[in-house]
Amino acid sequence: MRILILCDLEGTAGVVDFKTQTYDGGRDNEQAKYLATLEINALIDGAMEGGATDPIVLDGHGSGGINIEHIHREARVIYGRPIGSAWEMGLTFEAQFLYGHHAMENTPDGVLCHSWSSRSIANCWLNDELNGRVV
After folding, report:
1. 3-state secondary structure of 54
2. In the chain, which segments carry CATH 3.40.50.10780?
3. What is the model's pTM?
4. Domain 2-101 falls in which CATH fold?
5. Chunked in runs of 10, what are the mean pLDDT values of the chain (135 residues)?
């Protein structure tokens, strides 16, 4: 069973600061990516125990949010920019996991919440409704 794991960095346990952990070149960016990679690998192990056989990891963090050297040996990885959606790339899969995602901008008590860009987009609306999802 092919699975797609769409990843982001801001939802990783222990990742709590944009500047030092999630921005490329930040003091703790490599450590944050390593932590995310460990969690993704655990997700893959669990999925494979449940019957998955073909994990595809799509790194959705802008500057890269995984440590490619430590990713699960069974995973195929889509990494780098520019990148399209899974559908634009023609990927097919039986199940999808969302790993490390965050709340939309201005979510009360949201950790590292933002909508698409933590540096340049404050809010997004769809039909006059505040929205943080890609549609």
Report:
1. strand
2. 2-101
3. 0.84
4. Rossmann fold (3.40.50)
5. 94 94 95 98 98 94 91 92 77 92 79 69 74 52
